[in-house]
Amino acid sequence: MKRIIIIGAGYVGLTLGIASAKAGYEVFFIDINDCIVNSINNRCPTFYEKGLKEGLESYFDQKNNIAYLSLSDFYLENKNKDSIYIVSLGTPLSSDKTALLEPIENVTKEIVKWMNEDDLLILRSTVAVGTSRYLLNTIDGLKNISFCPERTIEGKALEELNYLPQIISGSSIQSQTIATDYFKKITPDILTAETLETAELVKLASNTFRDLNFAYSNLLALIANKFDVNVNELINLSNFRYERNKISFPGLVGGPCLEKDTYILAQCFPDSEADFIVEARKLNEYMALKAIKFIQEVNKSINYTVLICGAAFKGRPVTSDTRGSFVFQIIDELLNIGVNPTNIHVIDPVVTKIQPDIKVFNHYNMLKSNYNFMIQLTNHEMFDDKEFNIYIDKSIDHIISFWPRAKPLNKKNKSLFIGGVF
């Protein structure tokens, strides 16, 4: 079995590394972040995901380092042997919303210096279509490259890696064979894409489809609000035993993938026919501003208090990932209109820090104050607790919810339910 070296020990890299170690592979991580490297070597993840800590403690030798700041550091302690190098870096966007290739290109050039003849480079990062072939054609010494898209959901990644079909592509039969043999030990279902470009498109197509679906739901929510219609009821009635409809429920659409992948797909096809997918993304980005506009309409004063429910970009499954979370936009907008940062509190079950001067609580029983406004950004199970609803009724003047529940809250005061009017 080839050794697995994962470059980028974030959400994608660390979960895949644990799944690989569980399958019997010798696994190492490379990351330029000191805190991440030290934490992994102490068998402690830097983010919350069910099963991560247990996996680091169970499937890795507790005595030796398994994370390094560079490949050079790694090879000072380890011998060169046949390996699979997996690049799982995040994909930053430039100011014009195009994917930046330089980080992946630089990492690939470094990896090639250490690759043996039969080694394989797997790209797991989301990239613009044509990136894998560009690297193959421009970097001397790169022979075997596969693009194998990551498609797990945060909060259930370790579970999904066991059963989600893995899509394999390769620059050669040898590349496809090595990648297939690797992933077969992790999951039973392997699908082979005919080209590198096909596999690159799979990730972009999947996430853009979801983004479009959510944008349509959010548009329905805006239309439903205009006519005093409960959009959740509308969608339930539309979907019930009607197989042609699979309309999603509305809500905020963020996260490290959906906030970027539509732009990357549009970058690959910059024709006017693709304009509608960018407009759908902009609609999803606009939704959070509805909360600020509502607050300004209700209360012209800035001396009010705000409770924000949910800091991670989603609530189910639970994650501590705040990348692409609307909590930052909401806080920035509140500060812009003059709200004192000490009057802004956040509650989230696993996120512990947002930014200076903003208090974060991990449970509603820690809240001692009354609030003029509550903004519910995510659907954590905690926010469905009966006791939490009792607290809201007693302590909150106005509710702004992107995840309304089955019954109205706080009827006596004006509220805004983005996901439906009650």
Protein described:
With 422 residues, the chain is an alpha/beta fold. It has 2 domains: 3-194, Rossmann fold, CATH 3.40.50; 219-417, 3-Layer(aba) Sandwich (Rossmann fold), CATH 3.40.50.720. The chain has 15 helices and 14 strands. It has helices at 11-22, 34-41, 52-58, 71-77, 102-112, 131-138, 157-160, 173-184, 196-226, 231-239, 258-268, 275-286, 289-298, 327-336, 386-395, and strands spanning 3-7, 27-30, 67-68, 83-87, 120-123, 145-147, 166-168, 190-192, 306-309, 344-347, 359-361, 371-376, 396-401, 416-417. The strands form 3 sheets. The chain has a 6-stranded parallel sheet with strand order 3-2-1-4-5-6, sandwiched between helices. A 6-stranded parallel sheet has the order 11-10-9-12-13-14. It has a two-stranded parallel ribbon with strand order 7-8. Mean pLDDT is 91; it is low at 406-412.
- The overall strand count is 14
Shape descriptor: globular
Average pLDDT number: 91
List segments where confidence is low: pLDDT < 50 over at least 5 consecutive residues. Answer: 406-412
Q: Which assembly state applies to the chains in this document?
A: single chain
